[in-house]
User: What shape does this take?
Amino acid sequence: MEKLLQWVQDKNIKGYKIGIKDIVVENRVYLKCAYGCKDFGKRLNCPPHTINIEEFQKMLKEYNSGIVLIDKVKISEEEDIMKVWEEVRKKSFHKMIEMERQAFKEGYHFAHLLRAGSCNECTECGNFCIKPHMRRFSPEAVGINLSQTLKNINISIDYSKLNEITLVGILLLD
Assistant: This one.
């Protein structure tokens, strides 16, 4: 895992080891997707198109550990976060998915990334995903309470900074 953490750092992402027991999964997180996200039901990596929370909880127990990935991107005070959000998120996801591939190469054959936010590889989703190799769920889509999970490993994030976008992913490792 140390090799992976170094690899992450070289990509300008902070990586933090996390035990599976520190990942908090709650049913109430679904409410944030269903009643707080514009992509609910529209993206094929968003509920209700995801595996359900109970199924995810079972799968999570099959992993040994993970790495919390935090990508902080500075923007100027003049930039509108909402205008740069999609592109920043896409670039961050591409770095994180590269990490999943690296983990696989290093013997973590069931490495799986939970990406920051909904998929934005295509402008919109059709009836089926045309890029299934890039389709990953967000932690929230499968019920992960990111705030409590990060708190469990002594990480706090200040989302109020207008000149910084913080993206959080979790790489699950077997």
User: Anything to note?
Assistant: The chain has one domain: 2-173. Residues 2-173 form one domain. DSSP finds five helices and four strands in the chain. The longest helix spans residues 81-105.
